[in-house]
TrEMBL record, chain A:
InterPro entries: ECF_trnsprt_substrate-spec. The chain crosses the membrane at residues 7-26, 32-53, 60-78, 90-110, 122-143, 163-187. Keywords: Membrane, Transmembrane, Transmembrane helix. The keyword tRNA processing does not apply. One of its GO terms (molecular function) is transmembrane transporter activity. It comes from Loigolactobacillus rennini DSM 20253. This is Integral membrane protein. The keyword Transmembrane helix applies.
Amino acid sequence: MLRKNKAYHLSILAMFIAVIIIQNFVPLFGYIPFGLLDLTTIHVTVVIAAIILGPKNGALIGGVWGLITFVRAFAAPTSPLAPLVFTNPVVSILPRILIGVVAGWTFIWLNKKIKQTPAMMLAAIAGTLVNTLLVLTLIYVFYRTPAVAQAYGTADVSRLGGLLLAVVGANGIPEAILAAVVAPLICTPLRRFQQRR
Amino acid sequence: MMNKLLFGRFIPGESFVHHLDPRNKLLMSFYYIGIIFLANNWSTYLCLFLFTLLAVYLSSIKMGFFIRGVRPLIWLILFTVLLQVFFTRGGKVFWSWGPIVLSQYGLVNGVYIFMRFVLIIFMSTLLTLTTPPLSLADAIEAILKPLRVVRFPVYEVALMLSIALRFVPTLMDETEKIMNAQRARGVDFGEGNLFQQMRAVVPLLIPLFVSSFNRAEDLAIAMEARGYQGGEGRSKYRILTWHYRDTFVVLAFIALTGILIWLRA
């Protein structure tokens, strides 16, 4: 039986946050170098948190990841895109929170209708695609406004718009596949492990 | 591996910067990132550069640590700068090829963006070199406190953050151990095509999560045994105090802002 007291809840979330922090800094574990781009595996952790601990906690874990992305965009950017895009907290934090929310609710909703494994896969895909699509939309919204572009010191960023979209899109699809493959592989044993106690 | 970590690079010391209130340091670092966008000409960047050098000097930490902070990012910075250089138009055009233009504004803009990166990295390195991670967590708690009005669980989140920071090195060791154990079983990390690399992550994550669940369970029992109730009214072991020097630093930043506004084009 799952222990539902406050202390356990708090420490399990702390562990997930610790894993997210580590994934941000250890290569091969947090991100897979893939040509010029880095495919992240951090969203998998967020999806796992959302499936096992529920949408609210998934949102929190996603929020922590967003916050780290936001801070790193200034201090230690992970890709050439980061300083242009993720310095805007709406672009860096909001989509990541929604990964948790969407993946969590999709799983709860689908788990009643179809088998557990496909439910997990669909939840993972939904969560990841929401992140990608939202980042794309927000880039589209924010970086076509000259005033905002000016504030970021990149007067001509509209010219970069197409490039940004291509790069983020090229990341999103393999990341969704990764999440769909990995999430059920990890969540199934974890759920069993969690239910055993 | 640990050396690359943003947290845990703390270097103990007794300098002026070390003794500042962590809340102040955190807020001022963010404030600094804000005002850096005010700079738009040579004099303002020079001014910021001198201010940053003064801060580095006051921390009595060797310059080498800061340069080491920039080094792993240098290619990325250069790439961003090049994008800026070639996609900004205006002023005299030196060279052009299709959509790529090497212009006067582009070059100047590139230099500014390079400076901005280096300055921000220096400041954030200064923050993490002079502030222990747990003090940073305390500072974040203090800054988040106003969010209690909207029923945001500030105390819980702060405690979570402290626990997470405490367990980062532990889980890091564990990750390395698991990686080696899986290597001994023949898993190749960082080799093969994309799909094989993705598969290699699975035997890493499962044991790590299982051990995290076990650890969380132990920790919860330990917390309960010590009577953890959660939330309001817990007393603190580390109490943050605001000194005169903190006020002085705030005033220095306000003065810097004034100078920047006065000098900017």
